[in-house]
Amino acid sequence: MSAVVTPAEAGEGTIRITGGTKTFSAIIGGTRIKNLDIDDTAIFNANVTTTTLTSASANYDITFNANLTVTSTTTFSNTGTVTFGNATGDTFTFTGGITATAPGVIAVVTNGITAAGSAVINLGATSVTFANTATVGGTSTGAITLGDTTLANGVTLTVGTGRGNAITLNAVSGTAGGSTSNLTLNSTGALNLSDTLGTDLGTVTITQSAGVTFLSLIHI
């Protein structure tokens, strides 16, 4: 484990992770951690709490195997894989929202990704995978965006929690060769499905929508 800690305002500090793969097995957090700045491959095996979280633009992976709480903004600019959780009980709370459009893959193992207020959840990566039944939303009314999404066999993905989120999805499909998966879109805001819906999806449920736009084919 290696990291550089630099001072910041109000006695708090920045943890900057650089220089090859780093594995952290102790909790990172507390009132003195203001920024978590990741510049290279990092594996977090214990809970992480920070005010902001950023990653540099380069091809490397980041793995969170426990709870992650970011009380302000989160931006992932790395182009490798970002993994959220190694069990369904892990919690991922991005109070000020999350932007993750650069990663090649976002691998979601946890069963929930949340934001608050009017913060956005933008998982517009090249590929987003869900290994377990999960909900993306929380209490936020901000926009929710998912890149091309693949669901594991038999799981249900729920996007939105009945609030006024504008939801934008690219392609959504199950995994070929196994049991079908399900998709629920739960928002009073507008829903925009910009790519193919299917295959290997069993049930698609749309609730409370203020309007749905389908821009491509639906295969159920």
Describe the overall structure.
By secondary structure, the chain is an all-beta fold. The protein has one domain (60-214). 0% of the residues lie in helices and 48% in strands. The chain is built from no helices and 25 strands. The strands form two sheets. It has a 17-stranded mixed beta sheet that branches. Mean pLDDT is 88; it is low at 4-11.
Topology (SSEs and partners):
Elements lengths: L3 E4 L5 E5 L4 E3 L8 E6 L3 E3 L3 E3 L1 E4 L6 E3 L3 E3 L3 E3 L4 E4 L7 E3 L3 E2 L5 E4 L3 E4 L5 E10 L3 E5 L5 E8 L4 E4 L7 E3 L2 E2 L7 E6 L4 E3 L7 E7 L4 E3 L6
Parallel strand pairs: 2-4, 3-5, 4-7, 5-8, 6-9, 7-10, 8-11, 9-12, 10-13, 11-14, 12-15, 13-16, 14-16, 15-17, 16-18, 17-19, 18-20, 18-21, 19-22, 20-23, 22-24, 23-25
Antiparallel strand pairs: 1-2
Structural class: mainly beta
Q: Strand percentage, roughly?
A: over 45%
Helical fraction: under 10%
The main pleated sheet reads as:
17 strands, mixed
Shape: globular
Number of domains: 1
Radius of gyration: 17 Å
List low-pLDDT spans: 4-11
Query: pLDDT average, as an integer?
Result: 88
Entry summary:
With 220 residues, the protein is mostly beta strands.
Descriptive keywords:
220 residues; mainly beta; 17-stranded mixed beta sheet; eight-stranded parallel beta sheet; 0% helix
